[in-house]
Amino acid sequence: MKAPKVAVILMLAYVGVVATFESLLGYFQPSGQGTMVVTTMDSAGVSHARVVARLDSDGQLYVARNHWPKAWYDRALKRPQVQITIDGEQGDYVAVPVGGAEFERVNSEHRLGIVFRILTGFPTRYILRLDQL
């Protein structure tokens, strides 16, 4: 009877660590070299900016959804015209979901480390190609 209690406590502690890590990332939105700001629009036409990691592959710009919080990603799927800001330079892009060989290539070039995956709770990764308008 003691082992199940310990397992439940460990699971709840892990969920707490993931929730805390994701919340702090969302709140502080750390930026720097290798990041960009993606601005999406919701259904009411309100814009939302989010700092995300920039992925460059084969001369093309990509962004990945690597976390459980994914409102920016869902908005980009519904309204794919997004604005990207890199080093203060803004541009208009179309977000295009990628799969198959293109997904595998970009994903393999930009692997996520095991510590990051543990801290984020192993969310499914989705990748968008950003085609400049």
Please describe the topology of this protein.
Layout: H1 2-28, E1 35-41, E2 47-53, E3 55-57, E4 60-65, H2 71-78, E5 81-86, E6 89-97, H3 100-109, H4 114-120, E7 126-132
Antiparallel strand pairs: 1-2, 1-5, 3-4, 4-7, 5-6, 6-7
Q: How would you characterize the overall build of this protein?
A:
The structure is a single chain. The protein is α+β, with helices and mostly antiparallel strands. The protein has one domain (2-132): Roll (Pnp Oxidase, Chain A), CATH 2.30.110. Helices cover 39% and strands 34% of the residues. The chain is built from 4 helices and 7 strands, in the order H-E-E-E-E-H-E-E-H-H-E. It has helices at residues 2-28, 71-78, 100-109, 114-120; strands at residues 35-41, 47-53, 55-57, 60-65, 81-86, 89-97, 126-132. Strands 2-1-5-6-7-4-3 form a 7-stranded antiparallel β-sheet, with helices on both faces. Strand 3 and strand 4 (60-65) form a beta hairpin. The longest helix has 27 residues, at 2-28. The radius of gyration is 17 Å and the shape is globular. The mean pLDDT is 91.
